[in-house]
Write a sequence for this structure.
């Protein structure tokens, strides 16, 4: 009979899983996970009290998850795991617009709006803004029929789903491009905001001396036939949290410079007051790589 010791346990456990798991990918993932987990425990010489605390932390994290709240995704976000998975799965070699985190506030089924619509349904004193640009493929050819799904927080830092004082679908909408690939809509500047700080993830940030803030940003999911889905943000240049995003989602290529605009005719046309902030930002989508036909 074999004794399980500090020295042989990792190898024994890996061999057990490695020899019995028939799904090849599962075998690779599980054995690597065991190796890294054991190495971590040895590295920090985890105490029993710490192990128990970790179990309690994960249990409490799971207990606040429901249809509207996913504390595990938030945990993955603040540990940089979401961005790492995103980076590995969206290597773009400098072509196309970069991805960033989806976040928990996307709601599917946003209203489909005509180009130029104002997505600010209730004026709570925010700074009016106009956002426009082109959606092209990776080579700069305009994409017709691309769907741009946008959502954002208000200047107060709340999404509509968090703010009982604004109507449903405030600061959300879907726009479809014409042959020139152009998009344009009116809105207000997005404010910086904290990620939900009242769960175990908030507790972890406080314990580690980190703030929960994200810099102001517009969210986008852009889809076009034959192209990879683009999930991204435009961050506001000059935001004080650009260098310290709590979820590590910032990229310099995704920072947009707004300019102050005094065009009264344009303001009238799009329901804005002057002066308003104007942003020009183009998106490039990668052509999807055709799946290899499966050999018979
Ligand atoms: C967001 O930008 O909506 C977000 C992203 C990650 C975690 C929390 C919020
Ligand atoms: Fe957000």
């Amino acid at each position: 009979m074999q004794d399980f010791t500090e020295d042989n346990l990792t190898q024994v456990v890996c061999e057990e899983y490695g020899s019995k798991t028939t799904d090849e990918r599962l075998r690779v993932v599980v054995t690597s996970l065991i190796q890294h987990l054991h190495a971590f425990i040895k590295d920090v010489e985890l105490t029993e009290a710490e192990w128990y605390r970790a179990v309690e932390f994960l249990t409490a994290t799971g207990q606040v998850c429901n249809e509207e709240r996913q504390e595990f995704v938030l945990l993955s976000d603040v540990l940089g795991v979401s961005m790492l998975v995103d980076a590995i799965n969206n290597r773009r070699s400098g072509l196309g617009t970069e991805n960033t985190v989806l976040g928990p506030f996307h709601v599917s089924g946003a209203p489909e709006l005509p180009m130029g619509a104002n997505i600010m349904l209730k004026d709570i004193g925010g700074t009016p803004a106009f956002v426009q640009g082109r959606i092209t493929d990776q080579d700069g050819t305009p994409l017709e029929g691309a769907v741009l799904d946008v959502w954002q927080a208000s200047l107060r830092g709340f999404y509509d789903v968090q703010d009982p004082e604004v109507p449903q679908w405030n600061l959300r909408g879907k726009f479809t491009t014409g042959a020139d690939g152009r998009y344009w809509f009116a809105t207000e500047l997005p404010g910086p905001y904290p990620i939900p700080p009242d769960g175990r993830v908030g507790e972890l940030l406080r314990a580690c001396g980190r703030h929960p803030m994200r810099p102001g940003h517009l969210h986008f999911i852009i889809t076009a036939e034959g192209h990879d889905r683009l999930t991204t943000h435009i961050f506001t240049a000059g935001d004080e949290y650009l260098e310290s995003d709590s979820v590590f989602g910032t990229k310099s290529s995704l920072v947009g410079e707004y300019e102050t605009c005094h065009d009264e005719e344009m303001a009238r046309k799009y329901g804005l007051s002057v002066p308003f902030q104007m942003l020009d930002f183009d998106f490039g989508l990668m052509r999807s790589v055709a799946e290899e036909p499966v050999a018979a």
Notes: The two ends are 47 Å apart (CA to CA).
